[in-house]
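Journal club side-thread
Mid-discussion, someone asked how the predicted structure for our own chain would compare to the paper's figures. Pasting it here so we can look after the session.
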Amino acid sequence: MAIHPVLSTSGPWARPAGRLLAAGAGLALAATALGSGAAVADPVSGSTGTDPDGASVTPAVSGSTSVGAAVPAGSSYVALGDSYSSGTGTRSYLEDGTECLRSASAFPSLLAAANGYDLDLRACSGSVVADVRANQLGALGPDTDLVTLTIGGNDADFTGVITECALPAWASDCDTAIDGAQAFVAATLPARLSGLYAEIRAAAPAAEVVVAGYPRLFMGEDCDVLTFFSPEEQARLNTTADQLNARTAAAAAAAGFSFVDPTDAFTGHAVCDEPEWLNGLSNPVVESYHPNVAGHAQGYAPLVGAAVGTTVAVTDAVLAQAAAGAAAQAERQAERAPYDRDVTPAEVDVAQLDQAHGAIARGSRPRSESPGNHRGPRLVGRA
């Protein structure tokens, strides 16, 4: 069972900062060894959902819906998108003059290191579709061989929904927040994605393009001391991730792009699972609800590698190769820093959780958790 560091810096719930550990000794060593150019910071149900427009949604099978030709070593590779591509959650980031939280432990860095690609890591934490269009597409050109992309979660304000649902029932309206996100994913996001995909194809006409989706975050239990996710809320959040993947997969297929669904790969590795590939509520808070080093190395990298016709095994040698390229990648991205400085990582609003716990500590509000959701007080650190 994973036990997460809690975040309050004041009040009765204050705890010292903790640190997430990567799975496996080699991964743990690499997570602390990315020194060159990097600053070290510190299944619920397999639910089938229904979109607000009535369309039935079943969880997609993990893997690529279509596989293109193998992309050879030496290829020009541009990684676009949001925090799930930049590497937020891996706790070691490039010193590139931005808040993009780009990492040598991110799956694009590992894929490039394993296959000998020339990587341009443009993905930036907090990005929405409009940010990719405005800030990242300039990296593409007729000589681009491979493009990967994760996008859409911030457009649907998934972090805001997580914040709302993490609160106790008396302080939140989780169902309304989820309803809003699902309505957006069904009615608005597909057109945004289709427009972006058309621009990617126009800018990189010869490139193999792989779009990756998002994993389910939860498995039915909340082991974080500060949060109040009920099993029912976790199931609905997972269904929303399934719907987001389904809509993204459809738009990708229409554009002729491959789609990789990480759902199955991350099953058994969600928040509070062991081993955990997804961070729970963490310190610093920006790390929360993102893939950790193991999630990128053992989850995303092999899946995306398969979609481009290669087998990616993230060995210590691959991790070292990715780390060795961190300084050059940081310098490459620093040249575009003015384009990225208007993008801010999305974070769970911990202040709201602190206020709720303060009310509980004063006795003015009940804890209001579902029976069996939390399993008693948690120690700081990791089990």
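Post-session note: Strands lie at 38-40, 49-50, 56-57, 63-64, 76-81, 92-94, 118-121, 146-150, 208-212, 258-261.
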